User: What shape does this take?
Amino acid sequence: MEKPGLTERIVIVGAGQAGCQLAVSLREMGFAGAITLLGDEAGPPYQRPPLSKAFLKGSIGSDALCIKPEAYFSERSITFRPASLVEKIDRRAKNVVLTTGEAISYDRLVLATGVRNRMISIPNADAPGIVYLRTLGEADALKAEMMSRRRVVVIGAGFIGMEFAAVARQAGLEVIVVEQADRSMSRAVSKQMSSYVEARHRSEGVRLEFNAAADAFKLDAFGRLEALRLKDGRDIEAELALIAIGVIPNVELAETARLQVRNGILVDDSLTTSDPAIHAIGDCARYMHPLYPERSIRLESVQNAADQARFLAGAIMGEVARYDSVPWFWSDQYDLKLQIAGLCGPTDTAELAGNPASGSFSVRHSADGRMTALETMNQAREHMLARNELKRFLAANADLAGKAPVIADTSIHIKA
Amino acid sequence: MTVITFITPDGMSRDVEAETGMSVMQVAKRAGIDGIIAECGGEMVCATCHVFVRSEELLDRLPPRSAIEEDMLDFTSEPRRSGSRLSCQIPISDRLAGLVVEIPGTQV
Assistant: This one.
């Protein structure tokens, strides 16, 4: 990438963890041009991970979620504009157009548009008491609902669903989790890890229903949620339903602007899209990672958002490198700390180390004899060692690359 | 209100009014102090809110390090010293008035 001049204008679409970190890192690294940070939500940028854990429990308030206070942006000449929705990108004119009609010009555009909730499409899904959990506003609403309800059904046993189930159970609610797959967190962790976490939920009194599909919500005479009807005909009584069936990447802006998109905005190893003036970072970006050359990946994690933001700031400032940070994840449920270093592949060999009955163990994933990921339960040290091992492997194998570039043909730029 | 002093890697210091109930990390973030990243939001998985506690007289008023904090401090970007803590694990109280913490040069 060419070094930025004093007059370069960077526009960042999205003020979540990735967009906000990029603005901060650019200034920290001495970027002297103009930075505009456009957020779609109303307030200053905040951290999402505690929303399904400490915030929901009430152990921290919303002011504790702050990434940077609003004054920080003005002090560093970052134009932060909350509640600003981008309607389209005009690649020829090099500007973004807001829903208000205002156009903002860029020399370099960064899409940090994140994801949105996958909505459930079954009858009565818009009734009161049927809620989602991704934003601060949604977490606030859910917290209020939890105070006045006795029985909650959670649809989806991924990280969010399971974390919420733990908090709700600890708050004294009756909790039933309904999941289509045959186990919890099946996209992210091994069977061994799923069963360990499930056993804990059951011992806490959570009911888990696997291989169960939602069919319709049943409402009472006042239009309030009464039960969830399953496809097998059973009714699960509940006054509150949390829908946690995953997210959809926000690719529409990129797609309309004819950037390459495939369940994520496609970027190369410098996080550049098929237009050299446009980058994508965070949950919305799909890329090839040298540790996992068999497939392109799109990660929904704080680590990925923050590391990509810091990397891109460096790349814009002229540092030459490829993006290859080791992915890591975590989930807190009750007092369990589940951590994952790396990514488990579908055909990896999984080996258990340690005794789950002791409350602390790990599952090591490998392919072709080398570690691809380590899942740990209550083993922070082993987790950190695994991250370092993967980092060292990458450093020693700088020539590792994806089997095929994720962007098919970068010569296609602006057509229409 | 308790006043906490942050010393940045360039030697500058900044006094911040801290509310009881928040952690030193949350106080730093809310005040926009550079160098406290705290990517995980206080869940002890990132070790990017590392500080060196300078106030030796207050060390025994801090809650002891948990096993996880001990582990994470072995993996901080700037190596740990005797006063190393994760600032997310230090809750503010009146007893910590005048606490001085130094921010390491790197967190990642």
About this structure: The first strand of chain B starts at residue 2 and ends at 7. Residues 51 and 94 of chain B are 20 Å apart (CA to CA). DSSP finds two helices and five strands in chain B.
